[in-house]
Amino acid sequence: MISITPCSSNDPFQKLEEAGIPVIFFDKVPEVKTCNKVCLADEEAAIFAASTIIKYNKKQVPDVFGNHELSITQKRLHAFAREFEKQAPDTKLFIRHCNNSTEALNVTLDFCSRNTVDNIFAMSD
Fold first, then answer.
1. Is 24 within 8 Å of 47 (Cβ atoms)?
2. What is the per-residue DSSP string for 11-72?
């Protein structure tokens, strides 16, 4: 089983497949439709998170997302933002992308240093 990173190339994994060695991607998967993969309900999870924030009537929502190149981040971000557009278009999203836990910590601390923050949404490793 394999979980890709932003710098992963599919070439080595294709060679494994060609050699008859089964490859299964999980969680962070390539966009290739023909590969074996196990995914979470990315869009549904993002919609649930957005709906919960909207339910509590939050109007300024700081958001920490993972690497913008990963399909998992793109799927979750699009569903999350789309839900706000549909249900609470006046809500201001403050979206930041982080590539590692140190960046995520710094962005989170920056958000927390602001007096107007009463929630933070994080979808990041």
1. no
2. HHHHHHHHTT---EEESS--S-TTSEEE---HHHHHHHHHHHHHHTT-SEEEEEE--TTSHH
Question: Order of strands, edge to edge, in the sheet holding 60-65?
Answer: 92-97, 60-65, 121-123
Task: Return the DSSP state at 2.
Answer: B
Total domains in the chain come to 2
Measured distance CA(45)–CA(39) in Å, rounded: 12
pLDDT tens-place string over residues 14-59: 787 788 888 887 777 777 777 787 877 889 999 999 999 999 999 9
Question: Do 17 and 23 meet the contact criterion of CB atoms below 8 Å apart?
Answer: yes
User: What pTM did the predictor assign?
Assistant: 0.77
Q: How many CA atoms lie within 13 A of 92 on its CB side?
A: 5
Q: Write out the two tokens for 107.
A: 């962005």
- Do both 94 and 62 map to the same domain? yes
Range of the domain at 88: 42-123
